[in-house]
Specification:
The protein is an alpha/beta fold and 398 residues long. It contains 14 helices and 18 strands.
Length: 398
């Protein structure tokens, strides 16, 4: 299916050149997460851009997307796939292979799956949140996935990995959201990615709305209840401290938890800002590729206890905006909270460090990169990632 680019070429960029026609491709618009906030920032960077996605569920993602044109694949016809795109994992290669953007000068692919498989007549920039977890880290990602999806992927994995790597090789420029994702791109695709940290897109100056019944001073953790998010370990830790309240933004994991552990979900942006601003600290121990929650919470001056791993290595400055723990266990989590309380970090230091992730900084970098890519001559031949040799162009087709 061909996708028409919007006329986003009216006016000037910050560098004085005519704005390019841009399309943003994103894996699936069916949840409220950090990657979706990055897409909204990209849309603010390129007014007039449109969005391409495998599925779009307006009631499950940020309401701001309703202001934009969203094109979808054939998967969007099926309500089950809109509710849970993991059901469609074996079909995503086919879906993205069917999407084609003919008239955009640049397609920016926001990818933690296969949006980089979109067919683009113009230049393609891939902003990688992580290589597809269900292919390269299936034990962590698919622990709660439907049995049908797990079985189908185990059978199809060799074919899907080959397709994924061929499509990654079609990028004119590869960006990574963190150091660990840069390393994974090198290991999985043989590509060198430039690190561009995503922005903390929560606007701290906008209104806040208190959550009824919740008092300030709680410990906060933010995560969907999936195995690799480790939210159950945070709950186990705070269950041993009934005098402290833990707020789990995203909902409680399965099981029975004491009254001092509160699950919240489906908050408005105003409520989210209040929850961030009124916590005493954030506990971040998920297996995160970047972990956008850390700079978001720190932008309200609140410190963090974080696992010394993954994306937190880029977002946490030990002794400045938080403290590290070496393992995501209940004992280490409680020890981290004790150490954080003892050192009494200054709010000014936390706020100053958070400015590294200002949205305007992100927008300026992305615009500059688009300009640079448009000025580059096209590469002559793609690299065959399976052999480390020049590929036959026909081999890039599924």
């Amino acid at each position: 299916m061909a996708v028409r680019a919007s006329d986003g070429d009216v006016g000037q960029t910050g560098q004085g050149s005519v704005k390019p026609r841009v399309v943003i491709a994103h894996d699936y618009l069916s949840q409220r997460g950090g990657a979706e906030r990055v897409v909204l920032s990209l849309l603010r960077a390129f007014p007039g851009a449109r969005v391409v996605s495998s599925v779009y569920a307006p009631d499950q993602t940020y309401a701001e997307f309703q202001q934009f044109d969203v094109e979808t694949s054939f998967l969007n016809r099926f309500p089950a796939f809109r509710r849970d795109p993991r059901l469609a994992l074996p079909l995503l290669a086919m879906a993205w292979d069917s999407l084609r953007v003919d008239d955009a000068q640049v397609v920016i692919c926001s990818s933690s799956g296969w949006s980089h498989g979109v067919r683009a007549a113009g230049k393609k920039i891939v902003y990688c949140h992580n290589p597809a977890r269900w292919l390269y880290q299936p034990e962590a990602y698919l622990s709660h996935a439907p049995r049908f999806s797990r079985l189908a992927l185990s059978i199809l994995r060799p074919t899907l990995v080959a397709w994924d790597r061929r499509q990654a090789a079609t990028a004119d420029r590869c960006l990574a959201n963190s150091t660990v994702v840069k390393d994974r791109n090198r290991a999985v695709y043989g590509l060198e990615a430039e690190i561009v940290h995503p922005p903390a897109a929560v606007n701290i100056s906008q209104e806040q709305q208190a959550v009824p019944g919740l008092k300030s001073g709680y410990v906060l953790t933010v995560s969907r209840s999936r195995g690799y998010k480790n939210v159950d370990l945070v709950c186990q830790a705070l269950a041993r401290r009934p005098e402290s309240t833990l707020v789990v933004l995203g909902g409680l994991p399965s099981g029975t938890w004491p009254n001092n552990i509160v699950g919240l979900r489906d908050l408005s942006d105003a409520q989210l800002r209040w929850v961030y601003a009124n916590c005493s600290a954030l506990v971040a121990v998920a297996q995160e590729d970047f972990g956008l929650t850390v700079p978001e919470v720190c932008s309200f001056g609140r410190p963090v206890v974080a696992w010394r791993a993954g994306g937190y290595l880029d977002t946490v400055a030990d002794g400045i905006n938080g403290v590290f723990i070496d393992e995501p266990t209940p004992d280490h989590i409680l020890d981290g909270l004790d150490r954080l309380s003892a050192i009494d970090l200054t709010q000014a230091g936390v706020l100053a460090d958070a400015r590294r992730f200002d949205e305007q900084t992100f927008i300026s970098r992305i615009r500059a990169l688009v300009t640079k890519v448009l000025e580059e001559r096209p590469s002559s031949t793609p690299v065959d990632l399976r052999r480390g040799q020049v590929a036959d162009p026909l081999s890039r087709q599924l």
